[in-house]
Amino acid sequence: MKPCPDRHETILLDAYGELDPVQRRDWDQHKVACPGCRSEYDALLRLLGRIKESIPVPELSEKSATSILRSVKQELRKEREKAPWWKQWLVRPSRLVPALATACIVLITFGWFGMNLIQGPETDLDTLGVSAENQAVLKDLEIIKNIEFLEEMDTLQELVTVLDRNESI
Amino acid sequence: MKDEDLVAQARKSDQKAIEDLIRRYQQKAYAIAYHFTDGNVQDAEDFTQEAFLGAFQNLENFRGDSSFYTWFYRILVNVCLDGRRRRNRWQRIFLPWQRDSTDRGLSPEERPDPEAHERSLKTLSEKELSRDIRESLKSLPEKQRLAFQLKALHGMSIQEVARAMGTAEGTVKSHLFRATQFLREKFKDWEEG
Fold first, then answer.
1. Chain B residues touching residue A44 (CB < 8 angstroms)
2. CATH code of domain B1-111
């Protein structure tokens, strides 16, 4: 015999002892009249009882209980005795050395790249410490080196002028 | 002495109050951890200790909205869940070796009887039925199993289970309903027999 489909939750709540007085009154009346619900409720109670029997609640031995108690208290005491982090640093400044070293490395690295970015790549001659007069001489030297190329450029310029003139005629 | 008074004194690092609170909830905490770890005594003791330590380290966060034990059980449940996840990760890594050693370590009586699966639940012996129930509980999804264990085995109210699990009462009811339906279906034959 099957229980009423709308009573599943009530059966469960009653089996777990979670029905409020109003629900209980209504449910008790229904249970008397409905053998399906009653039998389902009884079966559920038996099953829950059987499960409880199958899985006994273990006892913590006195030895283990004392051991847990002692460990917890010991850990808490250790923690209380431990000074806060800033105090530890004050007492032992050597702990700061790795942090300071790392900070220095980071500062130098970023400082180097930062300077390069600000000054840009066109300031090579300036960074080498070359004066303005010497810079002019260096530019002249560069023109002399490329003089052949410049002569060819002049020839081409003339050729273009001749062609233009012919076209205009 | 009431829990609230003990908590107030424990906040001032009163060793006696801390000891009294631990003694008061130690057995129940251990039982929950024991069921949660499938009967692993060492893990259950470790989880119990870890939960108490966590509770006393964070006692200033306890606002007193709920009872101390509900707050503490929530910490315990979280410790157990985390612990089990950690253990499962290890098991996944070392599963092949573990399986070998487990098979080798079982005595002939402890080894599962292949024929037992073929027999109906009606004919199961008491011992086999108990084993079957434990295995069925293990096969439940984590939250359903936890809700069921806290309610059915440890006698907590649905409200307490909800607080311990950090979820709504409706959700706990739903977990309970599904878990119970699953077990009811699974042991229908036994019940009818």
1. 180, 184
2. 1.10.1740.10
- CA torsion, ordered B7, B11, B15, B21, to nearest 10 deg: 20
Residues in chain B, overall count:
193
On whether any CB of chain B is under 8 Å from the CB of A60, the answer is: yes
CA A108 – CA A130 distance, rounded (Å): 26
Global pTM value = 0.66
Closest by CA to B76, choosing from B109, B133, B35, B125, is: B35
Which residue, among A63, A51, A68, A48, has the nearest Cα to B30 in the 3D structure?
A68
Q: How far apart are CA A105 and CA B102, in angstroms?
A: 53
Under an 8 A CB cutoff, do A50 and B153 touch? no
Interface A-B: count of C-beta contacts within 8 A: 97
Name residue B86's amino acid: R
Radius of gyration of chain B (CA): 20
Q: Which of B98, B163, B21 is nearest to A73 (CA)?
A: B21
The domain spans of chain B are 1-111, 121-193
Give residue B56's identity as a one-letter amino acid code. Answer: F
User: Could you say which architecture CATH assigns to the domain B121-193?
Assistant: Orthogonal Bundle (1.10)
Helical axes B41-57 vs B15-36, angle rounded to 10°: 140
Residue B187 CA to residue B193 CA, distance in Å, equals 10
Q: Tell whether A25 is within 8 A of chain B (Cβ).
A: no
Residues 6+ apart with CB under 8 A from B38: B134, B138
Structure tokens, B94: 């070392």
In angstroms, what separates the C-alpha of A99 from chain B's closest C-alpha? 28
The C-alpha atoms of residue B39 and residue B52 are separated, in whole angstroms, by 20
Question: A67-76: per-residue pLDDT in tens?
Answer: 999 999 888 8
Helices (H), chain A: 8-15, 21-33, 35-54, 62-81, 85-91, 97-119, 124-127, 132-145, 147-168
- Could you give the angle at which helices A35-54 and A21-33 cross, rounded to 10 degrees? 110
**Per-residue pLDDT tens over the stretch A98-142:** 888 999 999 998 888 888 777 665 555 555 566 777 888 888 888
